[in-house]
Amino acid sequence: MRIRTVLFDLDGTLLDTAPDLADALNTVLAENHRAPLPFDTIRGVVSHGGKALIELGFSLPESHPDFDPLRLRLLAVYRDNIARRTRPFPGMSRLLEQLEQRGLNWGVVTNKPAWLTEPLLKELGLYGRAACVISGDTLNERKPHPAPMLHACEQAGSTPDQCVYIGDAQRDIEAGRNARMHTLVALFGYFQDSDRPQEWQADALLEEPGELLAWLDRMEQPA
Hints:
By secondary structure, the chain is α/β, with parallel strands linked by helices. The protein has helices at 18-31, 39-43, 49-58, 67-80, 92-101, 114-123, 147-156, 170-178, 211-220; strands at residues 5-8, 15-16, 87-88, 105-109, 132-134, 163-167, 182-186, 204-206. 41% of the residues lie in helices and 13% in strands. The strands form two sheets. Strands 5-4-1-6-7-8 form a six-stranded parallel sheet, sandwiched between helices. The protein has a two-stranded antiparallel ribbon with strand order 2-3. The relative contact order is 0.17.
């Protein structure tokens, strides 16, 4: 069955959010009289959210009494500067146009909360174009649970086998596979040295966004 819907993870797949998140973390570090971290150190952690950034910056366990106030401050700083330097990855804007020209729809499934997801997509003019936007708090479950993926399929008007999900974290691929949809790894996203995307059992690996079109063309060819 042909692909009708392309679903994207947000941070590290659809959008390069690392510059703004790194700035937010370094702002909170400075407020607490700590030295800033290099961008390359922060970049690989961005896909794992605010908790992972606080763990990286402050070396605190989540149970520490200072952990949640620091996390909330990080998110507040980030929200106030949410699209200052964030942009679609190179080639992504053109890819979205080409998908729309082909008559395919696309959407977002992210663990980022809606109060951050929706303003960001609106700032970049993408919210109204998406067939669905499923945030981390849209349902009770989050990736890698299949429920957000299946909810996205329903909103986009496609069945799971008509969808492909693209992400840059292992939980993204697990979520897509759990929902019985096709999965692709965005190798242009955010990775740590310990990540082994070749072992995540995705259908393919994408070096850059435009490679999705060739993969879609292969899917159209008869077996």
